[in-house]
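Exercise: predict the structure of this protein bound to DAU.
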Amino acid sequence: MQKLLVTGGAGFIGSNFVHYALANTDAAITVLDKLTYAGNIASLQGLPEDRFTFVKGDICDAELVNTLVGSADVVVHYAAESHNDNSLHDPRPFLDTNIIGTYTLIEAARRHGTRFHHISTDEVYGDLELDDPERFTEKTPYNPSSPYSSTKAGSDLLVRAWVRSFGLQATISNCSNNYGPYQHVEKFIPRQITNVIDGIRPKLYGAGENVRDWIHANDHSSAVLRIIEKGEIGQTYLIGADGEKNNKDVVELILKHMGQPADAYDQVIDRPGHDMRYAIDSTRLRSELGWEPQFSNFDQGIEDTIRWYRDNEAWWRPQKAETEAKYKVQGQ
Ligand code: NAD
Ligand code: DAU
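Solution:
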């Protein structure tokens, strides 16, 4: 039985990964999570006690990290400050967690010779024009736009340098926008769903033409497991499920499934530096590691996600008022 150390496992994608990995492998999992505003211990309820341990702590805490990494077979590193809008208003925590936190983990991993998988984002590549026929590949040059994406780019480069200079046993994956259960209400899809539940009109930044390449969190998890199992050390894999949609279409889909008129949304102040389009070419992952996404019906995925937020109000309600108050100050 493999022992996985999952950082950021109380966040959106990390918690989905923990549920997925416990259900689909015989691994034992320890989660290390600071429980920032974005972490929620309720996302990890009901897991098998003999295979799951939770440690509250900071990935910048070198002593704690050293102990935990030393007793793991594989580290799966999700912990990050993850929200672009927050990074535009207060970048400092992004530098601490995304850069220093990653540095702390890879130093421990090299000391112990522990296999390391670094979770990153397609945002490190910057953005594409709407009519660009190209998509991001592993060869696309880095060109991040926001404090968030630049710190993720920095963390990727640290991992690459530790592989080359110190022989760190690491792989990297850069994934597109995830959706599914347990996502914080600050993010686009859950924000609009919970707004409609609360009788608030969805808020679209600018004209809503920006395109994101949506993938279900479970498909991200299956890809990460495949890379841990079969990935080549030192390699980067792009994870995507051919899910390009513009924001206006996504809002209209949510409104349709929630019984509202298609135009029942507000256009609000745009995000500064807002990336126009992300699009992933995941050929390497598919052809070299034989991975395929399973959740290709976005319409159905959105319906299921709406149902999850309707059924789990106790999970998101404590964050909703504070999140909307923050957006209101920003005119969003
Ligand atoms: P999230 O904000 O929902 O969760 C982040 C988790 O990390 C939280 O539980 C938080 O408490 C924890 N954390 C933050 N700082 C910490 C610290 N210093 N020490 C320990 N724990 C800390 O984020 P998410 O959306 O689940 O993203 C997870 C990872 O996936 C990030 O690395 C992100 O860059 C990457 N990613 C996200 C997406 C997406 O669509 N959300 C897409 C591609 C990649
Ligand atoms: O591409 C992967 C990235 O996806 C991850 O690295 C990030 O961690 C994750 O947060 C996500 O970044 P985005 O900035 O794309 O996600 P967000 O949910 O904030 O916004 C999605 C799109 O919706 C974006 O074009 C901005 C827009 N938006 C967002 C909010 C919150 C709105 O139009 N209205 C909103 O209220």
